[in-house]
Amino acid sequence: MEITEVRIKLMEDSEDRLRALCSITIDHCFVIRDLKIIEGVNGPFVAMPSRKMTARCGKCGNKNYMRSHYCNQCGARLRGPQDVREPEGSGANKLYADIAHPINQSCRDLIQASVIREYSIELERAKQPGYKSRYDDEYVETVGLPPAPEVQTPQLGSAVPKPHLFEPKKTPAVELETDEKADKHSFGDGVF
Question: For domain 1-49+99-137, is the CATH number 1.20.1330.10?
């Protein structure tokens, strides 16, 4: 596996420890978005994209975030069963679940090193005048793909096939009434 692209979006006015969001491209063909770069006690580290855990209301069955006080659907107070009943595989205090994450330490180290290296480069780029983050730019499908096969052009004198083009159906022209015809008929003629 190779991380072929890292895009960073710096969070300038963040009051918490979040320093940047990033996305990584793996092997020119798979993108993971919304990794977080967080300032830790030993420097920045990478947190994987995650979602808030939910549990169902005992009254209406609607999903609500863990530790919510009231149901978003029916307004019932959510103390007791909603807080006690934990979703499968969650720990006692787990409020978030990873959407994507590495399976082993070597993969985690590869992602961490690539992202932190690009993060330090992005911090330097941000000091330049006219800096613009590439994080929100669209990904181009052809980046990193093998070159397209060459198209053979016909030689002079040979018949060149026409490309198939969609031609819209031609509709007959509608004849508009002229003032002479309009004078013969008055408004409402033929209604009764």
Answer: no
> At residue 189, what is the residue type?
D
Residue with tokens 């979703």: 87
Q: What is the pTM of this model?
A: 0.58
DSSP secondary structure code for residue 16 in this structure = S
Which structure tokens are listed for 1? 């596996």
Evaluate whether 60 touches 9 at the Cβ level (below 8 Å): no
Question: What is the spatial distance between Cα 184 and Cα 178, in angstroms, rounded to a whole number?
Answer: 10
| Rounded distance between C-alpha atoms, residue 8 and residue 147, angstroms | 28
Q: Where are the domains of the chain?
A: 1-49+99-137, 51-98
The dihedral of CA 85, 87, 89, 93: what is its sign? negative
81-103 pLDDT tens trace = 444 454 545 555 678 888 888 99
